[in-house]
Design brief:
The chain has 302 residues and is mainly alpha-helical. It has eight helices and four strands. Helix content is 70%, strand content 4%. The longest helix has 57 residues.
Length: 302
Amino acid sequence: MTTISSSSVQATLVDAMDRIQRGIAASSAQIASGEVAPTLSGLGAAAVPMLSAHSVVARQQAYVATSNALGTTLALYDTHISSIDSLATNLQQALTGASGAGTTAGLQTTIEDAFTSFRDALNAQGGGGALFGGSQTDGTPFVPQTLQASVGLSAEQAFSNDDVLASARVADHRDMTYGITARQLGTQLLTAFQTLASAGTISATPTKTQEAAMAKAVDQISTALTGIRSLNAANGQRQAQLQTLEQQAKDSVTRMQSVISETQDADLSKVATTLANQQTQLQISYSAFSKIAGLSLVNFLK
């Protein structure tokens, strides 16, 4: 028979065992997850600053992802602009050499091959569309398919791109305009090709008109190269800026993750000790409850 006094003690022990079991469950969850609480709300007063910290991490990680994608685009710009620089330089040297030697054998092929490389570079694809197309990423921003087809075309007719320059958010309150269009890049060099194309097919012995066209084209290429190199230099500056901004974003992520870890991550050795103590307390409570449950007036009278 259970006495009133033992019943009261039993109730107290039941409450204590329930509290200890909840503590064991919480400690076990911390060990399993490695975190102080399963949700931010479980952090109490620290929940708001932790929510802000997570927001900063997410935003900076987005900047890192943007920088990676944009870095690829800028690298493609550099590759194709550099190829145009090289073909223009080589063509200029070929024209100058042919004029000095007084023979132009093979020069026509060199000119046409340079034009083909020029066209292919301006119509290069990247990021799912025409790299130099502005916002017109479908189709080809440079229209004429052959050297002769370029004769008589204005810049508006030769280039189908618009003048919208792409931009991207690369840091807090920082947008980078990075787009380069085919018209920006190719108009001046196209003029040199048109000068050569208008002179007709250049055979081994050029006419006076062709010699004059070659000399004019050399000067036009010089002008074009100045613009091409200026665009590539600006692109290189953006690459350097992007690398700096990307590293800053990565550093910010590392710092904020450290702050988050200090608040949210559980001290597993401490939690393990707490869990062991809780389990010991529970065993003691079980033992005490068992003894009290066995008490009766008969036991007391004995």
